[in-house]
Amino acid sequence: MPAPSKATVLPSADAVAHLATYQCLDGLSVKDLMDSRVHGGLTYNDFLMLPGKIDFPASDVITDTRITRNVVLKTPFMSSPMDTVTETDMAINLALLGGIGVIHHNQSPESQAAMVRAVKRHENGFIADPVVFSPNHTVADVLDVKARLGFCGIPITETGYLGAKLVGIVTSRDVQFESPETPLREVMTTSLVTAPQGVTLAEANQILRSSKKGKLPIVDDHGCLTSLLARSDLLKNQNYPLASKNPDSKQLYAAAAVGTRPSDRERLKLLVEAGLDIVVLDSSQGNSVFQIDMLQWVKQTFPKLEVIAGNVVTREQAANLIAAGADALRVGMGSGSICITQEVMAVGRPQATAVFAVAEFASKFGIPVIADGGVSNVGHIVKALALGASAVMMGGLLAGTAEAPGEYFYHDGKRVKSYRGMGSLEAMEQGRPGASDKANGKPGSTKHAPHNSSKLHENAATTRYFSESSAVKVAQGVSGDVQDKGSIKAFVPYLHVGVQHSLQDIGVRSVSELQAGVKEGRVRFELRTPSAQVEGGVHGLHSYTKRLYA
Predict the structure, then answer these.
(1) Which helix (H) or strand (E) holds 498?
(2) pLDDT given for residue 422 in this prediction
(3) Distance (Å, whole) CA 249 – CA 57
(4) What are phi and psi of 418, to 5 degrees?
(5) pLDDT digits over 378-400, tens only?
(6) Measured between alpha carbons, how far is 255 from 281 in angstroms, rounded to an integer?
(7) Separation CA 463–CA 313 (nearest Å)
(8) At 262, is the secondary structure helix, strand, or coil?
């Protein structure tokens, strides 16, 4: 090949300036990419983002995001309100790691409220409503609280109520080796370190450090208990700097799902009493008179409660829920790994197209969008954020972790946990007379909220799919199992660091900068043909081991 003549070769120093001679940046803008009239509906696998310039470390990337009008998280991770994904353990640990878990409602209202209460009590600043006993309570009462709520440092007042005179405190050491029938007056510690009402959180923390006590009761001028502070919370502040906490109460954020039927109004009252911060109105098709009526009632009855409405996949669906007062929208219909709505009902939308369309519309009204479904890796999370989502809601990606409900078992030599869609027949049958209270034959977790499984409750799966009155149940989901993923204490930090590195490759320092860059056309995209998708994955090997993190 002959060398190019000197007349056709530009000076190397002019390379950057020469870019200005092109009519547009390399790649596609998001509007060109998401033109469904040209490209049809797209999934996350159908496109890539083009790299930008790296001039900062990945650790500098900020993943803070607003998931409702008034709630900001440190990471864009949410767990789905499914009975094989989110109960107490998932909700607590995901909140500690910077996300939020939405507790499912395919259970009795009392059980769900107990789970919300356990989340709110797990980590606090000043505990404004601590569990309080009287000297006449017994060791058995303390052990019961430990089994249900996970702690046993309990203040003792004369009457057993907050606001009464403080007379002692009971800790785990006090009740060790004691008979369950023993009155607390015989085992409680009466030599107490306290702080006066009005003390600041910083001052109270310093007293806890210097006293080396586990709990610090806060008392008024008459020695009456007004609140409590826990040493364990100081440790959690050090170990979990990203924890999702209410800025006022310093408690972990708690979210839970409810349906849109009249009985769900009573359920929600119990959840709000337990300390609920965010309610998710759970429906496969959110643009209904049932959800609009429920949404308006919630905003009138509990004006401070954040409401996530959905699910929706079009601007028209979103408009009705925004007008009714939604604080955020949940986007997705038929894109989950266990969902067959698109196949059976011929209704839905490819997830990437749905997220972009709804987010573009909702952003005009300041309403965040949550991408629900179709997320199976870090890349999908970043693509959802780039298309306008404030967070992703994960089901299958978190199923199989240690914190997901259910027990591990072995299937074809692999350690797995059950995972089922809320549209599966197994989920629709839960709570019915004679139905098993197990997911795919494996028991769900009742560690923090034991309840009588024989007690009937309105099935969340049938109400979600508007089929509670149907004589024939039409499944819109499947039941199966997923491989053991270990604990989310390792898996979620991997997702977080993965998002940071992805944004670094794109050349943006935050989620907000990513979305601004997409909107302004600075962040560019490229479509992927089927061959490109094969090329972008592992290929050409006889065998390989895929390790995601270490």
Answers:
(1) helix 488-506
(2) 65
(3) 34
(4) -70, 145
(5) 999 999 999 999 999 999 999 98
(6) 11
(7) 19
(8) helix
Distance CA 417, CA 109 (A): 25
List phi, psi (to 5°) of 72: -115, 130
First to last CA, the chain: 48
User: Is residue 298 packed enough to be buried (19+ CB in 10 Å), middle (13-18) or exposed (0-12)?
Assistant: buried
Closest CA to 299 of 323, 283, 331: 323
Q: Are 416 and 484 in contact (CB under 8 A)?
A: yes
Contacts 24+ apart (CB under 8 A), 16-21: none
Residues whose CB is less than 8 angstroms from the CB of residue 187 and which lie 6 or more positions away in sequence, other chains included? 139, 170, 174, 175, 178
d(C-alpha 317, C-alpha 320), whole Å: 6
Instruction: Give the CB-side neighbour count of residue 185, counting CA atoms within 13 A.
Output: 6
Give the number of C-alpha atoms closer than 13 A to the C-alpha of residue 198, restricted to the C-beta side: 3
374 bridge partner residues: none
Q: Is 12 exposed, middle or buried (0-12, 13-18, 19+ CB in 10 A)?
A: exposed
- Closest to 155 (Cα-Cα) out of 194, 123, 124: 194
Task: Round to whole Å and give the CA distance between 356 and 39.
Answer: 14
CB 217 within 8 A of CB 226: no
Give the separation between CA 312 and CA 372, rounded to whole angstroms.
10
| Rounded Cα gap, residues 92 and 252, in angstroms | 8
Q: Which of 124, 111, 338, 119 is nearest to 248 (CA)?
A: 124
Residue 111 has phi, psi (to 5 degrees) of: -65, -45
User: Is pLDDT above 50 for 448?
Assistant: no
List all residues 6 or more positions away from 203 whose beta carbon is below 8 Å from its beta carbon.
Answer: 195
State the pLDDT confidence band at 465, using cuts at 50, 70 and 90.
Answer: very low
Per the listing, tokens 């989110």 go with 86
Cα separation of 391 and 413, whole Å? 35
Residue with tokens 């209704």: 347
Is the Cβ–Cβ distance between 49 and 523 less than 8 Å?
yes
Closest to 292 in 3D by CA, of 323, 331, 255? 323
C-beta of residue 66 within 8 angstroms of C-beta of residue 99? no
Token pair recorded at residue 443: 């028991």
Helix ranges (DSSP H) in 274-363: 289-301, 315-323, 341-345, 351-362
Task: Output phi, psi for 409, to 5 deg.
Answer: -145, 175
Q: Could you list the active site residues?
A: 339, 464
pLDDT digits (tens, 9 = 90+) for 258-273: 999 999 999 999 999 9
Please tell me the total number of residues recorded for the chain in this structure: 550
